[in-house]
Protein: Starvation-inducible protein
Organism: Rhodanobacter lindaniclasticus
Amino acid sequence: MRNRPASLLIRLALPAALLVLAACAPAPIYKTTGNAVLATPAQVAQTPEHYSGNEVIWGGRIVHVTNFQDHSEIELLAYPLDSSQRPRANDSGNGRFIAVLQGYIEPLDYPAGALMTVDGKLNGTRAGQVGQADYLFPLVDVTQSHVWTAEEMQKGRSNVHFGLGVGVGIR
């Protein structure tokens, strides 16, 4: 019977600790609607007719920006998103897509290599090239976009790591 208070303490502490850890993660930045597509850009490129007009929330690493007379296009290498809709750039890529934004955007505000999340509607595809290879890019008419700062990418991520052995971590 002496272990009963310790057992109760463990049963209460574990859910409380999980709740605290979950509360540290930032909330998603965009709300999804009922017709949001969960497919990757690579999957959409294979059968774009199945997805046209549907909402997507995709993210990735900016490859480059091109400005036109009335709109701008950002090519992105897609990555899966975490629960806060931040691109997980340490995962493998999910294809490429082009984010179409109305008007002129300053390329310095969307630098190559930066991580970005967009919310918008699929609007067909466009043939292009990646290097010398032919490629079919899904087009996303962007309604909202966010370029992530290094500080935002670290929010809600624990610096506590569990493991066995000896190690030294320097940040």
Q: What stands out?
A: The domain at 41-154 is CATH 2.40.50.140 (OB fold (Dihydrolipoamide Acetyltransferase, E2P)).
